[in-house]
Automatic annotation (TrEMBL):
InterPro entries: MetI-like, MetI-like_sf. Keywords: Cell membrane, Membrane, Transmembrane, Transmembrane helix, Transport. It is found in: Cell membrane. It is a multi-pass membrane protein. PANTHER family: ABC TRANSPORTER PERMEASE PROTEIN MG189-RELATED, ABC TRANSPORTER PERMEASE PROTEIN MG189-RELATED-RELATED. The chain crosses the membrane at residues 12-29, 66-93, 105-132, 138-155, 189-206, 239-259. CDD domains: TM_PBP2. It holds the Pfam family BPD_transp_1. The keyword Transmembrane applies. This is Carbohydrate ABC transporter permease. It comes from the Bacteria. Belongs to the binding-protein-dependent transport system permease family. Residues 70-260 form the ABC transmembrane type-1 domain.
Length: 275
C-alpha cells in the first residue's frame, strides 16, 4: 500500500516537472511579448508580465501586413489539411484493402520518397509552378502539398490493423461500391488516425517557411512565417515586437492541437470500449 502511494506521488511529481518543462517556453514567449527588448536583455531576466503588449502589437501591425499574412496562412493550412486527409486516406485505403497490379512496386516507390530531402524538389517544383503561372499565388502552396508519402504510409498501416476485411465484405454484400465503402464504412473507423494526421499536416503547413519564401515572390502577399522573418533587421531587431507576433502566430496552433487531440483521444477511448 505504501509503495503504491509512493509510486503515485513519484509519478505525479514527474508529470508536474514534465508539464513545467513543456509549458515554460510558452510562458516565456508571453513574458517577452509583453515587455520591451531592454527587459529581455536585462540581467537577471525579467520573468513577470509587462504592460507593453498593445504597444508591441501596434508596432507589429505597422511593420508588416500581419492580418493579410495570417489570412493566407489559414487558407493554405486549412485547404492543405483537408486535401491531405482526403487523398491520403483514399490512397491508403486502396493500398491496404485492395489488390491491383503493381501495388507493391508503387508503394515501394512512394516510401522511397522519404529519403529524398524536400529541398531537392524545390527547383523542379518551382519550374512546374512557373509553367502553370502560379508563382506568387497561394495555389502554389496548396496543390503541391495536397498529398504526401507519410500520410499515406501512416493511414495504410492504421487501416490494415483497424479495418477488418469482414466488414468490407459485408458492405460489398449490401451493395456498396468502392467510394461508398470508403466514405461510409472506412472513414468512421479511421477517425483517430485522421485526427493525428490532421494535426500533423496543419502544423507543418502553418510552420512552413522555405517553400513560401521561394514561390511567393511578392513580399506583400506571403505567409505568416515569412512575414515574421521580415521583422529581423541587419542593424538590430526589436525582439519584443517579434515575440508579440510569434505569440499571435502560436495561438491558432494551440487551439487546433487541443481540438484535434481531444477528438483523437475521444475516438481512441470509444474504440477501446467497443473492443
Amino acid at each position: 500500500m505504501i509503495s503504491t502511494r509512493r509510486g503515485r506521488w513519484s509519478g505525479g511529481i514527474l508529470l508536474l516537472v514534465g508539464g513545467v518543462i513543456v509549458l515554460f517556453p510558452y510562458y516565456w514567449l508571453a513574458v517577452m511579448a509583453t515587455n520591451t527588448t531592454a527587459d529581455i536583455y536585462s540581467t537577471p531576466p525579467k520573468l513577470t508580465f509587462g504592460s507593453h503588449l498593445v504597444e508591441n502589437l501596434s508596432l507589429l501591425f505597422s511593420k508588416i501586413d500581419f492580418l493579410g499574412s495570417l489570412g493566407n496562412t489559414v487558407l493554405v493550412a486549412v485547404c492543405t489539411t483537408v486535401l491531405v486527409l482526403f487523398f491520403d486516406s483514399l490512397a491508403a485505403f486502396t493500398f491496404a484493402k485492395y489488390r491491383f497490379p503493381g501495388a507493391n512496386l508503387l508503394f515501394g516507390i512512394l516510401l522511397a520518397t522519404f529519403v529524398v530531402p524536400t529541398q531537392l524538389a524545390a527547383i523542379p517544383q518551382f519550374s512546374i509552378m512557373a509553367a502553370f503561372g502560379w508563382v506568387g499565388d497561394v495555389k502554389a502552396l496548396i496543390v503541391p502539398a495536397a498529398a504526401n508519402a507519410f500520410g499515406i504510409f501512416w493511414m495504410r498501416q492504421y487501416c490494415r490493423s483497424a479495418l477488418p476485411d469482414e466488414l468490407l465484405e459485408a458492405a460489398k454484400v449490401d451493395g456498396c461500391g468502392f467510394f461508398r465503402t470508403y466514405w461510409s464504412v472506412a472513414l468512421p473507423i479511421l477517425r483517430p488516425a485522421l485526427a493525428f494526421l490532421g494535426i500533423f499536416t496543419f502544423v507543418n503547413a502553418w510552420n512552413d517557411y522555405l517553400w513560401p519564401l521561394i514561390v511567393m515572390v511578392d513580399s506583400r502577399n506571403t505567409t505568416l512565417q515569412v512575414a515574421l522573418n521580415q521583422l529581423n533587421s541587419l542593424y538590430g531587431t526589436d525582439y519584443s515586437m517579434v515575440m508579440a507576433g510569434t505569440l499571435l502566430a502560436v495561438v491558432p496552433l494551440v487551439v487546433v492541437f487541443l481540438f484535434g487531440a481531444r477528438h483523437f483521444i475521444r475516438n481512441i477511448a470509444a474504440g477501446a470500449v467497443k473492443g
